[in-house]
Structure formats: structure tokens, C-alpha cells
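Margin note: ligand = adenosine-5'-triphosphate.
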Amino acid sequence: MTVLAQLQRFGVSYSRDRAVAPALADVDLDLKAGEKLAIIGESGSGKSTIALALAGLLPSEAKLTGSLVWPGYPDRPPRAGRDIGFVFQDPGGSLNPVFTIGNTIAEVVQVNRSVDWHAALQAAHELIDRVRLPDPELIARSYPHQLSGGQRQRVAIAAAIAGRPLLLIADEATSALDTIVQAEIVALIRSLVEADGMTLLFISHDIALAASLADRIAVLRSGRLVECGDTRTIIQEPKDAYTKQLLRAHLAVEA
Ligand SMILES: Nc1ncnc2c1ncn2[C@@H]1O[C@H](COP(=O)(O)OP(=O)(O)OP(=O)(O)O)[C@@H](O)[C@H]1O
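Resulting structure:
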């Protein structure tokens, strides 16, 4: 597999109240083209910071160290919105409440695919169908508040893939959903990513959920990468004490 993005001794520090706080330090991580990579770790471990760095969306005051390169894109790194689609935890927050679902998705299509509004709306209906929402015509005319949380997340996924991205980043995309809807959304993400040959970065605090989807798992703790390997090895033969702790905590919750 070719490397899509490569982090080497990569670090990010945010300034807060004139103090500089490291959010990531010395991270060495390759994101391979076409893989499903999960990043797991507790709240504040730096997961979203990696996602924002890849998407070029870190705040301008963030201080970067080490390197982040896209070997296949030496002149222009992939751009968020078109080349990189994002799905966040709170679909309500990423959908404009006064736009219909159809207009929201069509706008993303139009911005990224240089088509007229009619074609963009048509593509929006097709995307609504692709994320397996019933009655695309009706959904397209609906507003976000008229949908359930799971349906809104499907819409957010449709908007995220509307620009035909090469990389989809799902940042705690299922955390606000109940277990059954969570499994449905994970299955949807998997099928879309595999059908379109996208690379997936799946960010979660839930090691079991990550294992159900990912080819590889990277474990972050306090801004440092403690372990990274293929999913089976991480789950069956974790090397790091923190990974073992995450697995034990999951088993305790299951019990
Ligand atoms: N814009 C910012 N300004 C200052 N500090 C920030 C900023 N964004 C994140 N941080 C800090 O950086 C650290 C890593 O945050 P990050 O959001 O990457 O972690 P996370 O693992 O994604 O957490 P969560 O699962 O809660 O979203 C945290 O200590 C956080 O408070």
C-alpha cells in the first residue's frame, strides 16, 4: 500500500493564556492509501488534533514541529471539503438549521464539482439514496430538526462524500448515537469507503467499535502514540500497558 500521509516526529502545541500546551508530541504515523485506520484514546489525547492537522484546519496560532507530508501530492496537499471529507460527532452542529437537507448537500456538490444547481440537486438526491435514507425526495425537502440523530448523521456523511474525497475522517461520528444506530452507521461508513476506494481515518474512544471497522489501530495517550498495529494484533496481543487497560475497561463495561 502506498503512503497517503506521513507524520514524522510530528507535534502540535496550542497557546492558551500565553502558555504553550503540547497536544501532540513526537508522533510517527503513516496513513496508507485505501486503508481504514482507527485512532483511539481517551478524551484530550490528541485524536482530533491529528485529524485537523491532516485536513489543514488547525488554528493559525498552533505551533507545529516535525513533519507532515503527502508523498503523492508534493505541490498541493489534499484540501478539506473536497479531497478530505469530515464527519463529526454532532451532526446537528454541522448542518445549517435553516437549509433543507437537499440544499445543504447540493451546495457541497456545487462547490466541489463545478455543476449547475439543477445537477447539484439531482446529485444530492442520489447521495441521500446512497446513505440509505428512505424517500430521498421527502428527505431532501426536510430540515435537520425533522430528522432523527441517526438520520442526521447519514445526511452529514452524504455531505462529507459529496465532493468525492480521497480521505474520509470520521471524528467520534457515532458517539452520540445508541448502539444499534451506531452499528448501522459504522456499516454504512465501511460500505461507502470500500465502494469508493476511500481511505478512512476513524477516530473513537471506543476500542471495540474501532476494532469492528479498522484494518489498523493507533493508540494515543496524552499526545503520544503508544502503539500502532493491525487490528488483530492490537486486540489479541497488545504490547502497551495503556492498550491493555483500554481493553480491560471495555470488557468490564461489556460484563
Ligand atoms: N484550539 C485549541 N486551543 C487550545 N487547546 C486546545 C485546542 N484544541 C485542543 N486543545 C487541547 O489539546 C489537547 C488535545 O485535544 P484533542 O481535541 O485533539 O483531543 P481528543 O483526543 O480529540 O479529545 P476528545 O475525544 O475529547 O475530542 C487537549 O488538552 C485540548 O484541551
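The pocket of adenosine-5'-triphosphate is lined by residues 14, 16, 23, 41, 43-49, 59, 205 (CB under 6 Å).
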